[in-house]
Amino acid sequence: MSPSRDRRGFTLIEVLLTLLIMTGIMVTITQVLTGARRTRDEVHNIQERQLAGPAILDQLERDLRGMFVYDRDPHDLLRIRDRVLSGFDADTIDFVTTTDGLLPWQDNPSEPFRAGDWNEVGYRLRPRPDSDEFLEIYRREGFGVDDRPFDQGRYALLSDRVKGFNIEVYEEDGPDTDPTEAWDGEEGGADSEFVGIPARIEVFLTIEMAPRLAREQLIIDRRTLTYSRIIRFPAYLRKTIDTAPIPAIPVLTPPVAYVPGGGSDAGGGGGGGGLLAPEDPNAPAGGEGGGDGGGDDNPFGGAGSSGGTDDLFGGGSSR
Questions:
Q1: Which tens digit of pLDDT belongs to each residue from 186-227?
Q2: Please, which residues have CB within 8 angstroms of residue 274's CB and are 6 or more apart in sequence?
Q3: Per-residue pLDDT tens for 66-96?
Q4: Do residue 92 and residue 170 come from a single domain?
Q5: Do residues 227 and 294 share a domain?
Q6: What span, in angstroms and rounded, lies between the C-alpha atoms of 4 and 271?
Q7: Do 227 and 263 fall into the same domain?
């Protein structure tokens, strides 16, 4: 007979207990990973909310605060147009600002890059090429100022998930003022009422939050946020247009020379002194001097026997 072998294994309870422990560990790990990914997405959305929407409006307000209006045509100060693209609001705004340029300019490859002190700036939108659900917003910047301040320049992409960009213009500041959708002095010509600078504008920017990684999410959360900004233009900026100083060449009065009086010894009394006034027939002459023999041809000198005592500049009588 062959010796018997002791074959012992895991019981069913032990196997089930092991599976239960491993399941609990896997569930815990899955929850930790899910929470970490959710936290990562929330941080991404917070960053996008802080960088995309407010950053664009901050830059727009910074450019408008530096608007340049001195010695410029009121029709070319500000242009706001109402537009609709793909069913979304896509208004445009153009002006000239003193904000330092964000896009360095280089005339020649051998010269260094420069940033303009005065720049033509605009904000424009276009449909997104790869999606009909979004718009792209760009910031236009033209180096310097020319006779076409609302055209040309280079474009920098600000956001590609825009759902709307609307600008309301208020000619007067107040709670009961009705807004207008456009402010374009060129469109109405010389008789246009939308000339110069309005009292305030209200900007509304709608952006959809982008998911962190769409491939990892079974249900994509499409949340849209609308940011608003009220920008009031100071009163002195609007008054500058009406009271712009006009440079002029100053007119100086010719200098006045003093001519001392006094005649010769042979002629008797000396003629009174006086100021040599400009060539003005109505200008007062110098003091009248006495002495019959004071043969002086100076029209501003003294002549005659009686001295002009009313002259404060030295007309005296002869002895």
A1: 655 544 677 888 999 999 999 987 765 545 554 556 678 899
A2: 258, 259, 261, 285, 286, 287, 300, 301, 311, 313, 314, 315
A3: 888 877 888 888 999 999 998 999 999 999 9
A4: yes
A5: no
A6: 163
A7: no
